[in-house]
Each structure stands twice: as structure tokens, then as C-alpha cells.
From TrEMBL:
Organism whose genome encodes this protein: Phytophthora palmivora
PANTHER family: ASPARTATE-SEMIALDEHYDE DEHYDROGENASE, DEHYDROGENASE, PUTATIVE-RELATED
Name of the molecule in the record: Aspartate-semialdehyde dehydrogenase
Molecular function terms from GO: oxidoreductase activity, acting on the aldehyde or oxo group of donors, NAD or NADP as acceptor; protein dimerization activity
GO biological process terms, semicolon-separated: amino acid biosynthetic process
Active-site feature positions: 50 (acyl-thioester intermediate), 163 (proton acceptor)
UniProt keyword annotations, A-Z: Membrane, Transmembrane, Transmembrane helix
Tagged with keyword S-adenosyl-L-methionine: no
Transmembrane segments: 278-299
Record domain Semialdehyde dehydrogenase dimerisation: where: 59-239
Any matching Pfam family: Semialdhyde_dhC
Length: 302
């Protein structure tokens, strides 16, 4: 590939807040990658944080329909968010705990087995952690809503893979629960799992190795009333939050399409079988700690 055919996707956090670097989830804001008159197409593209990406997939269609004024997020994040070393520490620690042996910790601030740690990344001056602030910063940028009120509390839990999040939103327009379910059922990248009477709801075990995130537990908020909605989401952060999103960006660059904002559900980004294998392979690489910068060369078709 020649230089003009080379794109770099950064899975790290270094460029996400840079106003000159697009932060992209193709189904939501892929339009920022479309070359405009007199402007060069961006070659460096940032991938969002995994927790942001999982929440955004469910929140975007709701935002388009009802308008989100405030967002409160509580995350329940798997050990794999800390890489292969985190998964290994959890596995060995659980084995030691069950054998009534000392449990050691190097990756996490405390032993994770049979525990919950409300601390991911460095604490900031405002009392939030950097992981929590990423959700605020990145959701605002991806949604192009710089004044959106977002508060997040992030916790590490003792499971291997897939993150879960409890989402509470206050909306501009009154929320119709049936309409919210309809939007999520039709949304790209989302599986609606919302039949509590049948004990069907999102869970990280079921979301593991799935391309789509799961959304469910929809209900009117007791805090915000008619202008509020509560829901729960689970998603494989190694796929939707990293490798899969990178492949979808590549697919969009190769076959760009218009994605209207705040009008209807985003255009579909479909994956071929070969691209699915690439995404799974990249996810496996993420799990063992690949470098954060992924160079992806695309040969332009005639």
C-alpha cells in the first residue's frame, strides 16, 4: 500500500481528546471520515474506550429519538480490561482463594477474586478516575454534544471477559418505553434482551465473543419520571470496544456511506466472513497485550 492508502487506528487514549483527530464509532459518527471539499481525509483515527463504545451503541438511538440531557453510568468491568495479566491474576487468585491460600495482587490495587474494586485507572483532581472521565469526554465527542452532562463510576469485578453497565438517562422529550424497545431492537450492533418475565436480560457471560452488545432491563426512571429511562448493557470489550470497531472503521473507509444524525438509525456496517476473522484475531491480540497502534492498509478499488 502507498502512503495515501495507509490509515492508522489508535486503540490507546493518547489521541481521543485531540480535536484534530476523529474519535469514531462508524454506526454513530462515521460521517466524520467522509472527505469534504478542500479537506484531506484523516489518516490517524482514534478508537474509543471500551466502556464508552459499549454504552454508546445503546444510547445513540435513544439520543436520536428522545435527546439525552443527563447520563449516569455505573460500570462492572471484567479482568480482561487489564489485559492478559489481569485475567491470569484473577484465575490464579481464585484458585488460591478456594484452596485457602494467600491471594497476591500486582495488576489490581487489591486481590480481585470474590471482590469488587471501585477503582480503574488513576484518580483525578475532581475525585473521578481517568477511566470514568473517559466516558464523559468521549461520549461528548462522539455524539458531538460538548455540554452533555455525564457522570460515571467504574468498578472492576471478578469475571474474565465482557463489561456491563447500568445506564440512567434524563431526556429532553418524554420517553415511551415501547418506542425505546423498538429503537434498540432495530439498532445496528445491538441485541435487545429484555424479557424479565422469562429471566432474559443482558449478562457478560452471554455477551462474550458476540459482535453486538446486549441491552435490556428497560424501565421508566423513578428519579426522572416521564423524562427518564434506565437500562442495562453488556458487551465484549475486546470486540465492540476495540478490535471489531477498528475493523468496522476500515470497512467504512473502504465503502463510505452517509450516516444521518438525529434522524434515523445509522447505516449498517456489515462484515464479511474474512473481516469477522480479522476482528476475532485482533481481539485475541488485544487480550495478550498487543501494541495500541494498529496500521491498517486499505487498497482503494477502481
Amino acid at each position: 500500500a502507498t502512503p495515501d492508502m495507509l490509515y492508522i487506528f489508535d486503540n490507546g487514549s493518547a489521541f481521543r481528546r485531540d480535536p484534530e483527530i476523529p474519535l469514531v464509532i462508524p454506526e454513530i459518527n462515521g460521517h466524520v471520515l467522509v472527505q469534504k471539499d478542500g479537506q484531506s481525509q484523516p489518516k490517524l483515527i482514534a478508537n474509543p474506550n471500551c466502556t464508552t463504545a459499549i454504552a454508546a451503541m445503546a444510547l445513540w438511538p435513544l439520543h436520536c429519538e428522545f435527546g439525552i440531557k443527563k447520563l449516569i453510568v455505573s460500570t462492572y468491568q471484567a479482568a480482561s480490561g487489564a489485559g492478559a495479566a489481569g485475567m491470569e491474576e484473577l484465575a490464579h487468585g481464585a484458585k488460591a482463594f478456594l484452596a485457602d491460600e494467600p491471594v497476591t495482587n500486582k495488576v489490581f490495587s487489591y486481590p480481585l477474586p470474590f471482590n469488587l474494586i471501585p477503582h480503574i485507572d488513576k484518580f483525578q483532581e475532581n475525585g473521578y478516575t481517568k477511566e470514568e472521565m473517559k466516558v464523559t469526554w468521549e461520549t461528548r465527542k462522539i455524539f458531538d454534544e460538548p455540554d452533555l452532562a455525564v457522570s460515571c463510576t467504574a468498578a472492576r469485578i471478578p469475571i474474565m471477559r465482557a463489561h456491563s453497565e447500568a445506564l440512567t438517562i434524563e431526556t429532553v422529550k418524554p420517553v415511551n418505553i415501547a418506542r425505546a424497545r423498538e429503537l434498540l431492537a432495530k439498532a445496528d450492533g445491538v441485541d435487545l434482551i429484555d424479557e424479565p418475565e422469562k429471566l432474559l436480560y443482558p449478562m457478560p457471560k452471554n455477551a462474550t465473543k458476540k459482535f453486538n452488545i446486549e441491552a435490556g432491563r428497560l424501565r421508566k426512571s423513578l428519579v426522572f419520571g416521564d423524562h427518564g429511562l434506565e437500562l442495562f448493557v453488556s458487551g465484549d470489550q475486546l470486540l465492540r470496544g476495540a478490535a471489531l470497531n477498528a475493523v468496522l472503521i476500515a470497512e467504512f473507509l473502504e465503502n463510505p456511506r452517509a450516516i444521518p444524525q438525529f434522524t434515523k438509525k445509522p447505516a449498517s456496517c456489515t462484515l464479511s466472513k474474512d473481516q469477522q476473522q480479522v476482528a476475532l484475531g485482533l481481539a485475541a491480540g488485544v487480550a495478550v497485550g498487543v501494541a495500541s497502534v494498529l496500521a491498517y492498509g486499505l487498497v482503494k478499488k477502481n
